[in-house]
């Protein structure tokens, strides 16, 4: 995926992103040592599996912060205020995130209890040796069998056991709707277990208790269906009349499809986590600017939310995504995410996010702040990163003609240790912030973003 296209002194440039492999090794280009996504329904048992489970937990937390934008954009007049409140709640790990399994735990538990009392069954015909006094029905095959037995009467042909081959009806629970129910309970129990494993500190919360009770109910019903001989439906089955018309079975089918879609989405997100992380970083910068007392939102790009992630992205927007006016310092601040025309300096810096700060009255050159959003499965060395970024910014200064670009910001996953580092090289400087999507990592990291934004805007004012 091409993140940035530019032109530096007549030469076309670009920044390309490769997806994360689903295995430890991958080719084109060669990559090794990647954490492996944990198997569904299995608890991690080795250090490598623990690392993969932690990577999945981090991915889901970032996803939760992005998905909170869906509810925030319902009120365009206060989108960023509502999103900021949601992120503030995420700083408390005792209040776990909302997720699809949480919604289903709340709405599907009564449905499962209803179906448990009336699991649908059908009467199916079988041929078996039946005592004469219990014979109720015979088909052509049974009649042929009886005619071939020795004897002149039915009693003689029944032999000493007094049994003949007849058609009997037996209860059978292995129907399509019960197979879908069995598949749903198994999948929901696995997803619920993953969710509770990711939130060990939230055991006293109402959401955790709901999900745990739902997981136990799913496991119990799954064992019941297994004992009744019900098979497990495969994905993609065509719903029958019962799945479409019976309310409870229909809700189970719809819930099953949503969880299957979640699995598909996770496959895509695992490969393109870097894109999701970029959106997370952009939103955090917007929230930090919006918090300023002098900041007034004067323009906002329409945000088009997608029901399904594509290439790790849940929403699309025009450019810039947001424009703020700083009343006291009289500055215009644009938040540019994935600009179509980055310019020579931003293209040379290989940064596909930037702040553009200008004065609407004075004729000064606009000033840009490059923002890099490197995503890594393991925590990167902040000190080494800022040294390299500051050196790069200093090296590209001869390209400055129509704008100023001297400062940069690196936003990278904290991986359990929020931190901040800064470095200068010549006339350029860079700051690296390790921020997390929840808990203390989010609280400390977001505070560092606030401090950086304030320092940049104050520098422009002077």
Automatic annotation (TrEMBL):
Region described as Disordered: 1-52
UniProt protein name: DUF2357 domain-containing protein
Organism: Meridianimarinicoccus aquatilis
